[in-house]
Design brief:
Elements lengths: L3 E10 L7 E7 L7 E2 L2 E3 L6 H13 L6 E15 L2 E12 L15 E6 L1 H7 L3 H16 L1 H8 L6 E3 L5 E3 L3 H11 L3 E5 L6
Parallel strand pairs: 1-6, 5-10
Antiparallel strand pairs: 1-2, 1-4, 2-3, 2-7, 5-6, 8-9
Amino acid sequence: MSTINLAGLLIYRISPRKPIEYLLLNDSYEHHRHWYPPKGRKIGAEDELKCALRETLDLIGLSASDLVTDEAFRAELKYVDGIKPKQVVYFLARMSVSSRQGMIRCDSSGLKYQWCTLDQALERVMFQSMQNILTQAEDYIEGLREEILFDNSRPRWQTVGGDNNVNRVNRNNRNRRIHQHHASRQRHHIHRHKRCA
């Protein structure tokens, strides 16, 4: 049986002297106890990040300019849902300073969202593999906290369209070196052959 490929974004927001918060969704009709980051199914040979962004924006109603994506963090899950093998790839995305956080909306019936600290997220996410990704994301973001907050304090970041029409941040040389340094040790491949997020 062929693997079903999905992609999603682990969205977070960060501010001085406050814990990092992650955006989690819950489908009260399908599984009311399980919370998860937004994700969706890839279309054909669609680029992973393009799929993650498309599905996320469809689910929560934001625009690409509301998010700053980070491809240096890539977490992969492999699992079996019933008899269907699935693979999910998650990227990090930060809410931009000028984002419309109050405009998040979940149009699907029964779908709701919540901002959670790491401890809250670990309580709401049912599967160990997703808990591991959240913990690794927290460590990764904390390692870049000063740089992220510095960039947040500057004028609004300029986003440019890429080859796949996915907005990218136009990073300066300092941030590019930081991301290259972390990318070599932060490419996460977590494999679980059980039902998970």
